[in-house]
Design goal:
By secondary structure, the chain is of the alpha+beta class. The chain contains 27 helices and 21 strands.
Length: about 850
Amino acid sequence: MIALKIAQRELIAAWRERLHGFRILMLCLIFGIASISAIGSLRGAIDAGLNSNGRIFLGGDAQIELTYRQANAREWAWMAGQSRTQSQIIDFRSMAVAPHTNKRILTQVKAVDSAYPLVGAVILSGDMDLAQAFAGRDGLPGAILAPALLRRLNITLGDQVLFGQKTFVVMATLLKEPDNFGNFALGPRSLILTKDLEGSGLLAAGTLFSSKYRLLFEAGRDLDQAQQGFESDWPGTGAKWKDARKASPGADRVIERMSRFLILIGLSGLIVGGIGVSAAVRAFIVKKTGHIAVLKTLGATPSQIFWIYTVQIAAYTGLSVVLGLVLGALAPFAARPFLPDNLAEVALISIYPSALIEAAIYGSLAAAIFSIWPLAQTEHIRPASLFRGAAAAQWPARRYLFAQAALLATALFGAVQFSGSWSMTFWLLGGIAIALLILAMISGAFQFTLRRIMHGSAFQGRLPLRAAFSALASGSERTGSVVMGIGLGLTVLAAVGQIDGNLRRSITQSLPDKAPSFFFLDIQSSQLPELKQRLAENPAVSKVETAPMLRGLVTKINQHPAADVGGDHWVLRGDRGISYADGLPDQTKITAGQWWGAGYNGPPQVSFAAEEAEEIGIGLGDQLTLNVLGRDIVAEITSLREVDFSTAGMGFVILLNEAALKGAPHSHIATVYAEAAAEIPILDELNQAFPNVTGIQIREAAALVTGVVSSIASAASIGALATLITGFLILIGAAAASVAQRAYESAILKTLGATRREILTSFVLRSAMIGALAACVALGAGLLGGWAVSHFVFENKFEIIWMNAALVILGGIGLTLVTNMLFALGPLSQSAASELRHRD
């Protein structure tokens, strides 16, 4: 009870002093907690928006999707019997051709019926409705184009556009498409009526397209029951079910993983804040050494002393948690105008308690973990400290070490539970721990080296250098906490910059050098000989590869549902490209098993990509059930192949023997390697000769991927900047705490004859050295992390991005130099006499 009364009295005194000495502690916690709660609140807002608007984003209560075919009469009858309204959509890629400008642009075509959209509203330019737009003019059917497609074709409303062999008139631009959230496309959208595709030649047998059937149920229909009915009545059809409960699983997955990653990045900022908390608590205990000695003289026990100051730190932590949660909860409201349009439209900005609870737990645990060590030092303060000053730091008693270990284990368990991914948590937090350990060890080694060399003859007569080395070696500049605080933020920035730079280089520079110029899709078997002949006669074409192309779904592995065996592996997540071959294709490397041999006509066999097979957990002798065009094919894995996707060339995870698939309707795919200057003429020639064939330029696809990578890197950089800002707060705290020491040092040096210039030079040197040390170590750790991710995760060649490296070095030096100089000018301007009299 006495401990609480003393703690209360000291808290009141600190409040009267405007929390002097605790501002940095609180700011570090507030900023870290606010970052985590803001990210969590934004994630909650997006999740809530996806859940509440699921019907709009899906376009109905449920959707059944088929690949390569449309629903037959029996399937239509089932849908009509289960729902009150149905709508069909056919989605495929094609080339939009503008006859007036002779431009050809890849577009994602959505062919709809008159019932579209079942839910939500399509917004067109000029307040035009869909029926009016599709009606067209002058005997031509109408088309609706995305503004980006209109610009790239260099046409305006009223101009003509070709899809395959059919001419349309552009009636309106597409301003809002309610059922397009989270859908990735290689080209801008075009909207037409399905019935107007007749005569276009775009949906020939084997053409790659998907047909989607949106259903509206009667009010109160149980979606679980509807899904169970679908699964029992549509076996072996290859159809996929999706309903409004999870309308955009791909977007859900990306948003969830990205938010987890950003929260863990925010947690790194909180860890840096913990370093600031530890430094602030240590300084507070040193300041209270005399008070603690008096209390022990009066009979206070070590336990009472510990709780007196623990209660105070807990009070400051509690206040920081509240303020951080308030800022974090309000941040999404302030950020709404800056969100991308698609997220701003989806997010339901509100207060989400789960996100705030997560941030509060993280903040409280961080404060406890980093405070317990300096608080435990109160046990080692003796009454004699009134005369001898503070004792040297010692190891805490075992009970404090056990308590700290328990808190750390709790924090790790919580991070795994909240992130939902133990591997991501341990890799990221493990990397942060290693980076902090490296920073601490090098900082200690640096101070040890300075103590060994500063008395050498090289420093004789060089007052600024000797004074700078002496201050750094003695610890008066708080070298360790500053290097760790600034260094960790710079480490994350360096790693993100190197990973981003290498990915960009790989996509935009290395990939086009070894990748084909084009992919051509939907080539009919009758068109293949002429297409190959045209390309062979073109001197700009260096290489052409072709292969039959179908799409299929792996439904079972050894007669068990595929997801039960291989989990959420990308190969099992949806339709995948499938091909067939008779003889062993050129440059194919078999890593296990044997090829079936030319002319094989026995039971279906499959050659599977070796790396993907290992990831899924399958191998030679395992059976796969593949659904192709609604037909189940059971095939045995008889060989594993090396498949290199890094070149963006021809590569199929699943390759079957020719007899298993040759009779199925299918088209062909071709990759063309050509000179860059000839790409557009080749595209024009083939599109004129084969209007139904879709050409995809690798350069354009690479640009889209680069944009996605840039967005991810930008988000990670923002998280890294938050960590760096927390380190900056530690730097400010260290600089502010050194003001009195620097004033005294300046007075002594002036008394010994040093000039203001020499003293200022000493201050500049020590600041630059701390900044350079933190930046160099951070750059080394960042390069190591960037290499590891590039090599092991992305399997790319790693090269140092020198611009990023230079910015890290200059940023570290500049940040510490400017901050320390702002706090050094005051002590430098004080007179030596007044400072020494004050000390006496």
